[in-house]
Structure formats: structure tokens, C-alpha cells
Specification:
By secondary structure, the chain is of the alpha/beta class. The protein has 13 helices and 14 strands. The longest helix is centred in the C-terminal third of the chain and has 23 residues.
């Protein structure tokens, strides 16, 4: 087996936290390479200046520090296309972590090309889904890129060994990092997810302090919140008539959801790598958006198109969850989904109340809802009740044949 030459320059997905700071130094020490740090602002709600300061403190050249505000790109080009599909993994999970990874990976590859790097690296562990999502995306975009996954390569056997390495290399350690963290958190503009430690037993209710994006439904106001959301071609464009950019609109929805205890999920899911994991997710804005999008589709999509979308959705969601955003099959599904959205335009009225989302009104210039057809009142001529008899007999024919055969056999 041939030995790979040492990488010359590596682009690291860098949060500024302890783990990726240790990875930064480990890359320099183990591979003797130049490290370029990339920190993505996806609306995680943290100040990213400290990430730059930490990278400088650890010896990274200023020109090798990249901090990119990707919030609008994230919502416009990743979140909204996914919500056009009404994508939900295993019936519940709105894919908040999954959908962020391809954008981070793509930007890493873009930076690698810009600075002439021959490798990329990430801080995902060897047990999780994110290692797959990052690396599948890297290879899809840059087939010959070298990928360095420290958690699969280094010799550290314990948290204590990592802390000892940090201290030996003057990596700042927050006081709470010297003990066991109560749980791990991933956050972006779409959601927050919490896993591990106090959440590992799926039979124990998550402590209230785990939740960071929503108040509890019990503490939500006793009065409902009602507002409208406008859609154009399947994407939300305005709240209460006020046009908003994609990121601003999702931010507004997040606040509305937070204030009404909307969007909590306690889930045991099947990871792509083969194990089950328990996570606590909060997706306040996404939960509202999914309900609203289905609401506007209910009057603008033909039954055949709607039902086909529902059949395709689980496959689409699985592709996103497993990290195949840049695959031809996801792009094929996206093309079909986007075609279905051509007339998904109109306004939905939404009520939020103590954790619940209700659609209480919907209208569209392209509505397929015909009140003359569905009314119980006399006078309509578009539908002849007598036609239903033949329709029913036609559809029941095979069942009648089966019943007669079974009766003979009895």
C-alpha cells in the first residue's frame, strides 16, 4: 500500500471551539501542513469574531482565515428547495443539520481552489452522519481532493488526552470544557440539535435547559398568534404583507415559533452509519413553514401531482439525510418538485397556540378549489350526483369479482 505524501495546505471547517482548535494544531503537528480555517455563519446565533481571534492566537496567518456570512445562501438555495419537497426524515425530522453540511462542504472546496489547498478537513466523529455528509460532498465536487478526518486517524483515547494536548499547545480551554459537557449542540438558522450525555437514555425526559430555541408550550401565551405568509412558486416571500429576504423571513418565523413553544421534537432516529441515536431538535420556523407550504399546496396542486410528491418525498429526505445533496438523483427529484411549484402562489393564514400550528385560511389566484363543485346547496350544475353511481361500480368491479369467487370456494 503506497504512502500518501504529506498535504501542503489544508482547509479546515473551523468553529473556533475546543475540538476544532485541537484539530488545527494536530494537523500542523502531524502532517506538517499549512492550515486555512473556514468558519461559516449559518445563523447559529454566535459571534464569529472569537473564531478569528482564536485562529490568530493559534498562529494562523490572517490571509488564511475565512469567515463567510452564508445565511441568505443557506436559506435561499438549500432550505427553501428542501421545503418545496416537504422533506421530513422518518416522519418527524426536518433535516436541520443535514441540509447545512453540503453548503459548508461546497464553500470549503471553493476556498481550497482559491488558495491552492490540496486537502480539506472536518471535526466530525467516526460514529456520526456528518462525516459521511461532508466527505460525500467533497468528493462529488472535487473528486481527487484529499480528506483528513482526525477523529478517525488520531491516537487520542479519552477526553483527558485531548485536554492534555490542548494544554501542551497553549490552546485556551473554557472552564466548563474541563469536565464532561452535558450534551453536544449543533445550531443554524433552521434549527438546533442536542445529543449525548444527559440525553443518551431515550426513556428519560430531556431537561428543560436543553431547549434553546423555544419556550415550553406550557409557558406560551394563553392568547393565539395569528399572521399571514405569502408564497411565490413554492417559496415564502412575506409575513403579514411585509416582503422579507429568505434569511430574514426564517428569522421572523423562528421568533414567532419561539414565542409560542412551536417546533420541539424528541426523536430516536436511524443514523446512516447504522446505529440509533436520540436527539432533541428545535425547528420553530421550519415547523411553521412546513405547515404553511402544505396549506398553500392544498389549493394549488392537482391531486395527482400532490400525491406523487408525497411518494417521492421520503426518498428525497433520505438523500438529504445521508449526504447526497450533490447527487444526480437528488437533482432529478428537485427538478420534478420545482416543476410542481409553478403555481404554488398565494397567501396562508396561520394560528400558533401553545406549541401547535394551525392553518386557518388559504387563498391563491391559481386555486383549484371550486366552491360551486363542493357546495351542498342546490343550483350548481358542474357536477351531476348520478355520475357517482357508475364511478363507484366501476371501481368496485374487481372487489365484486373477488367476493363472488371466494363465495363459490367457500
Amino acid at each position: 500500500m503506497s504512502v500518501q505524501p504529506a498535504p501542503k495546505k489544508v482547509v479546515l471547517a473551523y468553529s473556533g471551539g475546543l475540538d476544532t482548535s485541537i484539530i488545527l494544531k494536530w494537523l500542523e503537528q502531524t502532517h506538517g501542513c499549512e492550515v486555512v480555517t473556514f468558519t461559516a455563519d449559518l445563523g447559529q446565533g454566535e459571534e464569529l469574531g472569537p473564531a478569528r481571534d482564536k485562529a490568530l492566537l493559534l498562529g494562523v496567518k490572517p490571509e488564511n482565515i475565512f469567515i463567510e456570512d452564508l445565511r441568505e445562501t443557506f436559506v435561499r438555495d438549500y432550505v427553501f428547495p428542501m421545503f418545496r419537497a416537504n422533506a421530513v426524515y422518518e416522519g418527524q425530522y426536518l433535516l436541520g443539520t443535514s441540509i447545512a453540511r453540503p453548503l459548508i462542504a461546497k464553500t470549503q472546496i471553493d476556498i481550497a481552489r482559491k488558495v491552492g489547498a490540496d486537502a480539506v478537513s472536518h471535526g466530525s466523529t467516526g460514529k456520526g452522519n456528518d462525516q459521511v455528509r461532508y466527505e460525500v460532498a467533497y468528493y462529488a465536487l472535487e473528486p481527487d481532493i484529499r480528506v483528513i478526518a482526525p477523529w478517525r486517524e488520531w491516537d487520542f483515547k479519552s477526553r483527558e488526552a485531548l485536554l492534555a494536548f490542548a494544554e501542551a499547545h497553549q490552546i485556551p480551554i473554557a472552564k466548563d470544557k474541563r469536565g464532561e459537557a452535558p450534551f453536544s449542540v449543533d445550531a443554524n438558522l433552521l434549527h438546533s440539535s442536542s445529543e449525548g450525555k444527559v440525553l443518551e437514555d431515550p426513556d428519560v425526559e430531556a431537561p428543560e435547559f436543553v431547549h434553546m430555541r423555544t419556550i415550553s408550550p406550557e409557558d406560551a401565551p394563553d392568547k393565539p398568534t395569528v399572521f399571514t405568509m405569502d408564497f411565490e412558486r413554492g417559496d415564502p416571500t412575506a409575513i403579514d404583507g411585509e416582503a422579507l429576504s429568505p434569511a430574514d423571513l426564517l428569522t421572523r418565523l423562528n421568533q414567532l415559533g419561539h414565542d409560542n413553544g412551536v417546533g420541539r421534537l424528541d426523536l430516536v432516529e436511524n443514523r446512516y452509519v447504522g446505529m440509533k441515536s436520540r436527539g432533541v431538535y428545535e425547528t420553530p420556523g421550519g415547523t411553521i413553514l412546513l405547515a404553511a407550504h402544505r396549506g398553500i399546496e392544498s389549493i394549488t396542486l392537482d391531486r395527482g401531482a400532490m400525491h406523487l410528491k408525497d411518494e417521492l418525498m421520503p426518498k428525497y429526505a433520505e438523500l438529504v439525510y445521508n449526504g447526497f445533496w450533490f447527487s444526480p438523483e437528488r437533482e432529478m427529484l428537485q427538478a420534478a418538485i420545482d416543476h410542481s411549484q409553478a403555481k404554488v402562489t398565494g397567501r396562508v393564514r396561520i394560528k400558533l397556540y401553545k406549541g401547535n400550528v394551525s392553518i386557518i385560511g388559504r387563498s391563491s389566484p391559481y386555486s383549484l378549489y371550486d366552491q360551486d363543485l363542493v357546495t351542498f346547496e342546490e343550483g350548481q350544475t358542474a357536477y351531476d350526483h348520478h355520475d357517482a353511481g357508475g364511478f363507484i361500480k366501476f371501481n368496485a368491479l374487481r372487489l365484486r369479482v373477488l367476493a363472488k369467487r371466494d363465495a363459490r370456494g367457500g
